[in-house]
Design a protein that fits this description.
Blueprint lengths: L12 E4 L3 H11 L3 E2 L6 E5 L2 E6 L17 E6 L2 H10 L4 E3 L5 E5 L5 E6 L9
Parallel strand pairs: 1-4, 5-8
Antiparallel strand pairs: 2-3, 3-4, 6-7, 7-8
């Protein structure tokens, strides 16, 4: 008997970090994440994305883009040039300078973040 596949929905992305305070500052101050009221842990909204910080990592990510398989998350901004200047001003590590449509940066633990110029609709959903 064939079983139908389960139905999955998204809930949140957990970022395993080495330093909760450093990561909290990055997500709040650099990415403008809004803290969610929770009794335990650090939960944030960036647009529709929910991120939770879990400070139990011993070392930063060894991922070397594009050599290693990795996960990244996708953010969009209305002005990519302004975002690039913001990252430079705050010494955010640029992993891939991209082109006129995106840039890839890393959080303090090396978690990859793609930042795309917003077009009003997601190219992945076209």
């Amino acid at each position: 008997m064939d079983l139908p596949p389960p139905t999955f929905t998204s809930r949140a992305i957990t970022v395993y970090c080495t330093d909760r305070e450093l990561s909290r500052r990055f997500y709040e101050d650099i990415l403008s994440a809004k803290r969610l009221p929770r009794d335990v842990g650090d939960w944030f909204h960036i647009g529709e994305l929910v991120i939770t910080l879990c400070p139990n990592a011993e070392r930063i990510s060894p991922v070397d883009f594009p050599t290693h398989a990795a996960t990244s998350f996708w953010l969009e901004v209305p002005d990519l040039d302004a975002a690039r200047a913001w990252f430079e001003r705050h010494s955010v590590r640029v992993v891939d300078p991209g082109d006129e449509t995106f840039v890839m940066v890393a959080d303090p633990d090396g978690i990859l973040i793609e930042v795309w110029q917003s077009t009003g609709d997601s190219p992945a959903l076209r």
